[in-house]
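User: Some background: our group keeps a shared notebook of sequences we're curious about, and every so often someone picks one and asks for a predicted structure to add to the entry. Today it's my turn. The entry only has the sequence so far, pasted here. Could you supply the structure so I can complete it?
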Amino acid sequence: MTTYMAGRAILNAAEDAIKQLLYVGSIALRCPIDDLDFENERVYVKNDPDIYLAFKDIVHGYKYQNGNSVAGPIIGRGNFIMYKLTIPNPETGKGATGRSWTVGAQAVEIEYDTVQHTYRLLKAATVIDAGKVLNPKTAKGVVMGGMCMGLGQGTSEEFIYDETGVVQNTSFRTYKMLRYGEPPDYLVEFVETPQIDAPFGARGIAEHGIIAIPAALANAVSLAAKIDIEQIPIIPEYIWRKKLEL
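Assistant: Of course. Here's the predicted structure to add to the notebook entry:
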């Protein structure tokens, strides 16, 4: 979403800066703005590219040979706010609450111990429509980060409260997270359907890596242990108790 929202603002700021550069260039070159274009850090006359001004000569304003100056520093300004959002209907949940919708599929593979009711994470996979992938390594990294968070929620992370609502597990000794060596092999692939209103077609994808991973883990444990998993985190004691109910 940073790419989507900040990117839109940056593009708007760039457009604003370009308009200012062309405006100052038109004054300095004494021609209409429509007759100018820009490329390679310079503003030039379309039908005679040899007539041009370098950006460095106009970004602080332009000074004529006699010392007269026109315009001021070029400062591009841009902003963006998501539009056409609506408050969800309290009864149906329907409403437009964001713009980072996409589709994807996730899966988790485990190795289950039928005696101890423990399990080991082997693989976690995600295929997601990322719009347009601008930086493949970064895109995979943020999705993997989301998957890791989802596995933490599914396997061990849980807040424990007392009867007054005070959190009891306030350290990493009692708030269990995935440790080194516990995460699985991550498999991440992308489908690309550019988002029309996004910078260069990119979608927000980071948090999406979390969404279905706990459910995929629950399905894997359900199949392996032959029980119905109905809550997370899925700890061995919970599996054992569910087995006793059979």
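Suggested note for the entry: The helical segments are 2-29, 136-155, 213-225, 236-244. Residues 2-29 form the longest helix (28 residues).
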